[in-house]
Amino acid sequence: MERYPGSDRDSDPKHSELVETLQHFFVTTIRSSWEISECSFTVKDLLDEEQRRSFLREQATQQGLELGGTGSVAVGTLFAKRYSVWVMAVISAFSLYDTLLRIENDVVRVELTGSGRMRYESQLEQVTVAYADLAKRKSQLSMLKGRLQLQLGMILQGVAADTGASEKVMWALIAHNVQQLYAQMIHDEGIWKTAERLTRIQEDRSVWLAPQGDTESPFAMKHKCFEHPKWQGQPFLIRRYCCLAYQVESGSHAHGYCNSCPKLDSESRLRNLLQS
Known about the structure:
With 276 residues, the protein is α+β, with helices and mostly antiparallel strands. Helix content is 50%, strand content 8%. Strands 1-4-3-2 form a four-stranded mixed sheet. A two-stranded antiparallel ribbon has the order 5-6. The protein is globular.
């Protein structure tokens, strides 16, 4: 856990909950500035052509795919879908715990964990996120969104060049997970717990989806909500594009259509959701 000189932040129950939530739901570890990382790659590496290709080549191999060959596009789309887990960690830290995760290229680290999956490491900013001052909070989040969007854009541009995957499709996969996360947070009272926290979550969501000048936010791509007379669960968004996970090799890593896949028919989607 992060320990700040002269501070007992690491003994704060809210801080402990943040660390546990990020690790459990978003495979993101918080490390101190002096801890040696166990992750081999940084975001800076993902922005370097040679290092990124090495990463993607290994990720493809773990999935029984081939970078530049069979399933190369799937390598790209699955990278984007999995990298969105880190984006959701950043969002959850801010919206649920009023905490900024550091996103600098040389701070965020990434590691392949087998079958193409990834885990992440970062540190906490010492800047306090505004809770009572909504205008200041909005400004803080707008700055974070802008920085992260720029970083993501450069990474996805490189991944598109290496794999042949569409940048638009990769952005749509990330946008889906961002919107689904907020839909879940807003729907579940067990998550927001207080009316004030719900207000913060709703305000934060509006920032992520808001256009920047005349340009639509890439996180705001429209997604259909699953509707079925027998589905009474939380709002469930359907992806605009298939992530191509079904192309992963047979065996223990085999993958069919995701529950949110547009290729899945309504009855199959309902059956899967009711069984999950």
